[in-house]
Design a protein that fits this description.
Blueprint: E1 6-11, H1 15-27, E2 30-35, H2 38-47, E3 52-56, H3 64-73, E4 80-84, H4 89-97, E5 102-105, H5 110-125, E6 139-142, E7 145-148, E8 153-156, E9 159-161, H6 165-175, E10 182-183, H7 184-192, H8 200-214, E11 224-227, E12 231-234
Parallel strand pairs: 1-2, 1-3, 3-4, 4-5
Antiparallel strand pairs: 6-7, 7-8, 8-9, 10-12, 11-12
Helix pairs in contact: 2-3, 6-7, 6-8, 7-8
Length: 238
């Protein structure tokens, strides 16, 4: 029997999907907990710590968006993989805005699901905060912008800015190496753990949302700059 190294909470009202995911996650050595409605799922999510939460969007009693939002409001940084039958781009954006780390649209292949789960686990094991090229201090400050790594807290003029987990990780990576330009592909590998092409648009959308939260003028950013023809960098002249 494989060692149970990761705990996963599945919040999904379709028992066939729960059973299918449970089988494949146990093959990865995971210990599984499950809930069939949003309220029960939220209670379980806030009661214990998990390595991953798989969260359906359309749930009875409390929808997945609200469950995700409340988990993040309680400062739980557990990775969340959101599942939904909806494919519209706006649903993906809202899901990521509320704090989901990744997004799969039903129907999805088990192969793709397992690949996403492995990326999330690998990202946890190889946290970007332990990489040699990042600052070892727990506080990163640039003028009125302050990033607390331990508390995963970002403030501007002492006012807290609410970032999703991926937006926070992206900001930390860039701010830890001011002036260094990162290609979209490199950012995708370092922050998301994806070592393949086709997801560069994910970086662009997260950069846009990050700028929308920390920049006074997104058309003339102060912190996160574009390196034309390359990717993005953090302003080294602050």
């Amino acid at each position: 029997m494989p060692k149970e190294s990761n705990t996963v909470l599945i919040i999904e009202d379709d028992m066939h999907i729960v059973e299918l995911l449970t089988i494949h996650l146990k093959d990865l050595g995971c210990k599984i907990y499950s809930a069939t409605d949003g309220q029960q799922g939220l209670e379980l999510a806030l009661k214990d710590e998990y390595d991953l939460i798989i969260l359906d969007l359309m749930l009875p009693r409390l929808n997945g968006m609200e469950v995700c939002r409340r988990i993040r409001q309680n400062d739980f940084q557990t990775p969340i993989l959101m599942l939904t039958a909806k494919s519209e781009e706006i649903d993906k954006v809202i899901g990521l805005e509320t704090g989901a780390d990744d997004y799969l649209t039903k129907p999805f292949s088990i192969r793709e699901f397992i690949a996403r789960v492995k990326v999330i686990f690998r990202r946890k094991e190889n946290s970007i905060y332990r990489k040699e090229n990042l600052s070892t201090t727990s506080i990163i400050s640039f003028g009125n912008l302050e990033v607390d790594l331990d508390k995963r807290k970002v403030t501007i003029d002492q006012s807290r800015i609410e970032l999703s987990p991926m937006e926070f990780d992206l900001l930390v990576l860039l701010a830890s190496s001011p002036g260094k330009s990162f290609s979209r592909k490199h950012l995708l590998k370092l922050v998301w753990g994806y070592d393949f092409e086709g997801y560069e648009h994910t970086v662009n959308s997260h950069i846009n949302r990050l700028r929308g939260k920390i920049e006074k003028d997104v058309s003339n950013p102060k912190y996160v700059l574009t390196t034309w023809g390359v990717g993005y960098r953090f302003n080294e002249e602050l």
